[in-house]
Amino acid sequence: MLLLRIALASLVVFSFADVLRADDAEPAQPTQADRRAAMVRRIDEIINARLKAEGIEPAARSSDAEFLRRVSLDLTGAIPRVADVRAFLADERPDKRARMIDRLLDSPAHATHMANTFRHIMLPGGMDIEQINNVVGVQNWLRQRFVENVRYDNLVSELLVATAGDDAGPALYYTSLELLPEKLAGSTARIFLGLQIECAQCHDHPFDHWKQTDFWGYAAFFARLRRPDMNQPGVQMALVDIDEGEVQHPKTGEVVLPQYPSGNAPAKDELGTRRQQLAIWMASRDNPYLPRAAVNRGWSILFGRGIVEPVDDLGPQNPPSHPELMDELTRYFTKSGFDMRELLRTLANTEAYQRTSAWSGPKQPPADLYACMAVKTLSAEQLYDSVNRVLNRRGQGMMPGTNVQSSLLDPQRQVFIAKMQVAGRSPLEYQAGVLQALTLLNGSDLAEATDPQKSPLLGALEAPFLGSDEQLQTLFIATFSRPATDEELTLCKNQLASRSESDKAKAWSDILWAIMNSAEFALNH
Questions:
Q1: Is the dihedral of CA 484, 488, 490, 492 positive or negative?
Q2: 132-147 and 168-176 helices, crossing angle to 10°
Q3: In which domain, by residue range, is 451 found?
């Protein structure tokens, strides 16, 4: 019995010692995946709580096919390939959506799509064919940053201190605004800070707290930016900062010294050019605007509108639809290292993003409640690249006299985009007109896609091992990224049966033409 008590005492002592050691050990730090999962849950908690308060039951989860088409368009700018649709629909792993999000974000197509998105924000005037070679410089510079997943604050800082050489892309941004301090101030504040301070250029802002002095104090950071002597070879896109140059208050004529939008001015002993000083502040903790504007921009890329809308007007007169969500996402984005790719990954994994766009209720709820996914119009680039995906066509272009290659230099693409682009439109509003409609109905791209002799898709349907049902399903998967419904199969079969054998190829062409001119093909839902 004594021996038994000693043995039990020993077990207790060792067990207690083990507990002490476990208590002394430092708790495991959460991984980025843990933080992401927690943020995903938190986003849905906040949105669902608002829906519950409004008495609205959210829409159901999207189908796998609906999700795949949406996330492919949002993250890579084009519909998925047939093989990818088939593989995804057949995948039975519970985490296949998260895996697909990761795959798309890591693809070169994602970097290209993000470069397209931000190029349009920086150069909102559209793609002037006469300036296309210069636009490629901005596009390629942005694309390389997104390929490398450069921290967003560093990307902005690089842009702000651009000079020449590898910075030829950003230099075009400055020259497109004529190097005028007032234009650069209004543009950079709107794009990167979400502040429409240009309203204070001529008078105090009527709705916000910005004064004229605030605007011109920010503009002063660009007052010493110049183009060098254009007669020197190789410097046509260069920028230099000189030691003199000021802005003046338009009413008083007084010189206005640099002042950050936070209200502080650079310290007297602060080194560097004025643009360098602004770049340092832009990426500092003293700048509360940059991360909020980036989060709002990222949210708008996936949901079609910002938590604050318009996306570039984050003033106090325009509060967020979900203030708590805005604050928590901003902190999350900052702690994640200003990682835009990680932000999009987090948002794409939420219930809110993965809801169906179909709404069965009597009245569509407001878009800012996120009860269902908003239907978005495709940009001109998304539509063109999706048509190319159906055609299995790779447009290539080369900048004259250089080794610079870009899809933007493809002549067919240039013509299509020039006709289809609608400047300044909201993705939630369909603003296309007669020119855009005629381009789709009678344009050369859709004519090629539906030509029985030229269309790779229609040619592939002639394989002898495919029955009519399999042919039609392939057609629908290639265009709508989903199988055809029974009703659609019946309609298409009736169309084929009504045509003679010699006219069958034209019947298939007509079906494909109708599909590609449908609202479902031209929308992201």
A1: negative
A2: 130
A3: 439-524
Please give the DSSP secondary-structure letter assigned to residue 27: P
- Domain end: 302, 326, 348, which one? 348
The pLDDT score that the predictor gives to residue 208 is 65
Instruction: Work out the average pLDDT over 152-167.
Output: 84
Average per-residue pLDDT for the chain: 86
pLDDT tens-digit series, residues 40-94: 999 999 999 999 999 999 999 999 999 999 999 999 999 999 999 999 999 999 9
Query: What kind and span of H or E run contains 32?
Result: helix 32-53
Which comes out higher in pLDDT, residue 168 or 506? Answer: 506
DSSP codes, 258-309: ---TTS----TT--S-HHHHHHHHHTSTT-SHHHHHHHHHHHHHHHSS-SSS
What is the mean pLDDT of the segment spanning 439-444?
A: 72
Rounded to whole angstroms, how far apart are CA atoms 400 and 409?
A: 10
* C-alpha distances out from residue 396 to 102, 378, 388, 402, 407, Å: 27, 22, 12, 14, 5
Count of domains for the chain: 2
Return the closest-CA partner of residue 258 out of 242, 273, 240, 236. Answer: 273
Q: What is the distance between the alpha carbons of residues 146 and 144, in angstroms, rounded to a whole number?
A: 5
